[in-house]
Amino acid sequence: GGLVDLAHVNSVRDIFALNAADIGDARSKADAVEEEEEERELISDAFRSTALVSSREQYEAMYRRSVEDPDGFWADIASSFYWKTKWETKDGKIHSENIDVRKGRVAIEWFKGGQTNICYNALDRHVKAGLGDKIAFFWEGNDPGLDDKLTYTQLLERVCQLANYLRDQGVKKGDAVAIYMPMLVELPIAMLACARIGAVHSVVFGGFSAEALSQRILDCRPNIVLTTSGVRRGAKVIKLKEIVDEALECVLREGFAVGTCLTYANDSAIQREDTPWQKGRDIWWQDVVPKYPKDCAVEWMDAEDTLFLLYTSGSTGKPKGVLHTTGGYMVYTATTFKYAFDYHDNDIYWCTADCGWITGHSYLTYGPLLNGASVVVFEGVPNYPDAGRCWEIVDKYKVSIFYTAPTAIRSLMRSGDEPVKQHSRKSLRVLGSVGEPINPSAWRWYYDVVGDGHCPISDTWWQTETGGFMITPLPGGWPLKPGSATLPFFGVQPAIVDENGHEISGKCSGYLCIKAAWPGMMRTLQGDHARYETTYFAPFKGFYFSGDGCRRDGDGYYWLTGRVDDVINVSGHRIGTAEVESALVSHPQCAEAAVVGFDHEIKGQGIYAFITLLEGVEYSQQLRASLINAVRIQIGAFAAPDKIHWAPGLPKTRSGKIMRRILRKIAANQLDELGDISTLADPSVVAQLIDLRDV
Ligand code: WTA
């Protein structure tokens, strides 16, 4: 591969369609939190006495080595895993990287030549070490009273049976397997079974629509899809198999046929006879998988062989298949899990994320199991049947590490302190937050009320693309500040960069980039290395660009301020504005759509859609509902716009570009901050838009 064609990519503005005003916005947002900065939360001596990292000095020493000698640092850690064959070392180096597009193809390798298997390291290794009887998964059903548990030995057996079945179906190393399942233990079992035989899993979140699922299937072309008849989430029943059937019909129309649809019968949600069925293609999991042997030979994988694909939204175009490989991801997720949660062998860990997102991959499945942890897997939602459910579960399993998203915290906070205080929560030791910036008031409530003022909060900043934590507290290591992810993890070298691509130092704010590769970093985008380079490495040459804005304070702490591109973060779910727009304009009566985010009290951000209609079509509440429905059908209910704003015209420059800055201000109701509108082709559309706000 040669150089990326950079002729058309001169600056970040070209890619993200940013303009000076938007950059100013990101800056002022960053400065607004400045006042909070002096508030500190010290970690108690009692906590520090057992912490893995108990001072900033200890961290600084480890961190220094991790950036001065990354190869030595990571080789030492990697040695505690099982490698069938050790990695190659060239001039003392175990990794190679080029992240600078000016120097040629972007390429990253860690532990190349080393042969291992992540499933073996997550399960067999612990069983062989005598931990077979330890609980791997506590499963808690949607409805209180329905639960189950699996020891490491039992989990290994279940994984082997499915792995044997998949092999028997002809699934080989490198083949893709699509997984569309709810939070039953069978979902992580499916991921681990794929990993065991070298198949590439592609988990699609169960909230995505048939159409979105079919897109992902068409991109990775699996011969087998694993699913479930249905699931109960809160009071709702979701018939997943029906959605899969619709998706498979879609892909068939595109000329691609999936051979087998292995379906787990979830009788607590829907009866088998009520599940749509296509003879020959569909098979009940329970009818075949338990017949297979409980041991299964491992496929030894090169460290750089693909482990999984996970689709995520970007600022433009279709979702991208982020590709992670085996060795670096394994070492990185395990190490970040251990340090960021101060994991000890007797901890009980609960992560509320769904395996359909990266958090469920790295910190519900691989990271904790690689550490031999006992993990709670919860099928339901945090506020069902009532707002005390989470704390009931914490008490039931004596959860000591609890990891969730700010959106859940804010929604529970709204129900007040009482549902929390009705439960003891005395097992809790460490709390975690992920997915979006946590506002200081939610942080405070989480710390004071949920954690009774004695549990450090790990506010972990990272991304699907980074594989694991990038900026995060190490509990016990240093004082916390509400709303700050604090300091970089070992081996992570953040750079705050200005709009001209120059790194700025000290106390400052700008674009968050990373200066060098780390083991857990994605290696490419499925089938589109050029897009990988233009999206992440071309905007700021010599750096990996995160898409986030960030501020660094005088203590070197990092404060994430949200996306600076056209990605919206709704309840911690990443949604591309372009995807929502494309769903809206697919509606036969919609002419144009422009989607922006706006601050939302619970969800963090909400989706605000501006639309124009075809000539002669009149806007109505019915049309509004059917526009929203178009998004539900193409993406999923979680991406449904909160607000549809109809207008006869949208603000455009003379060259026809929609001015999103103005739309963002209107969505935020900051009408006195519209700025200069004189460059618009037709400035009168702005007044018209404002008039039509509440139609
Ligand atoms: C946002 C989720 C602030 C950020 C793991 C990032 C955060 C995007 C945090 C990635 C945090 C995630 N503080 N913002 N602690 N964690 N984000 O790929 O904008 O679903 O770029 O990965 O979520 O979302 P993704």
Q: Give a short account of the largest sheet.
A: 8 strands, mixed
Mean pLDDT: 94
Number of helices: 22
Overall 3D shape: globular
Provide the list of bound ligands, each named once: 5'-O-[(S)-ethoxy(hydroxy)phosphoryl]adenosine
Percent in helix: 25-40%
Strand content: 15-25%
The tally of beta strands, per DSSP, is 31
Strand order of the largest sheet: 12-11-8-6-7-14-15-24
Radius of gyration based on Cα positions: 25 Å
Separation of the first and last Cα atoms: 53 Å
Question: What do these coordinates show?
Answer:
The chain is of the alpha/beta class and 695 residues long. The chain is built from 22 helices and 31 strands. The strands form 8 sheets. It has an 8-stranded mixed beta sheet with strand order 12-11-8-6-7-14-15-24, sandwiched between helices. A 7-stranded mixed beta sheet has the order 5-4-17-16-18-19-20, sandwiched between helices. Helix 20 (621-634) links the parallel strand 30 and strand 31. Helix 12 crosses helix 13. The longest helix has 17 residues, at 152-168. The chain is globular and about 75 Å long.
Provide the fold topology:
Elements: H1 12-16, H2 20-32, H3 45-50, H4 56-68, H5 70-78, E1 95-98, E2 107-110, E3 115-116, H6 118-131, E4 135-140, E5 147-151, H7 152-168, E6 176-180, H8 186-197, E7 200-203, H9 210-220, E8 224-228, E9 231-233, E10 236-238, H10 240-253, E11 260-264, E12 282-284, H11 285-288, E13 301-302, E14 306-312, E15 320-325, H12 327-340, E16 348-351, H13 358-370, E17 374-378, H14 389-397, E18 401-404, H15 406-414, H16 418-421, E19 430-434, H17 440-450, E20 457-460, E21 494-497, E22 503-504, E23 508-514, E24 524-525, H18 529-537, E25 544-552, E26 558-563, E27 567-570, E28 573-576, H19 577-585, E29 590-600, E30 604-613, H20 621-634, E31 643-646, H21 660-667, H22 684-691
Parallel strand pairs: 4-17, 6-7, 6-8, 7-14, 8-11, 11-12, 16-17, 16-18, 18-19, 19-20, 30-31
Antiparallel strand pairs: 1-2, 3-13, 4-5, 9-10, 14-15, 15-24, 21-22, 21-23, 23-25, 25-26, 27-28, 29-30
The structure holds 5'-O-[(S)-ethoxy(hydroxy)phosphoryl]adenosine (WTA).
5'-O-[(S)-ethoxy(hydroxy)phosphoryl]adenosine is lined by residues 312, 357-359, 433-437, 459-464, 485, 546-548, 560, 562-563, 569, 574.
Protein name: acetate--CoA ligase
Keywords: ATP-binding, Ligase, Nucleotide-binding
Pfam families: ACAS_N (PF16177), AMP-binding (PF00501), AMP-binding_C (PF13193)
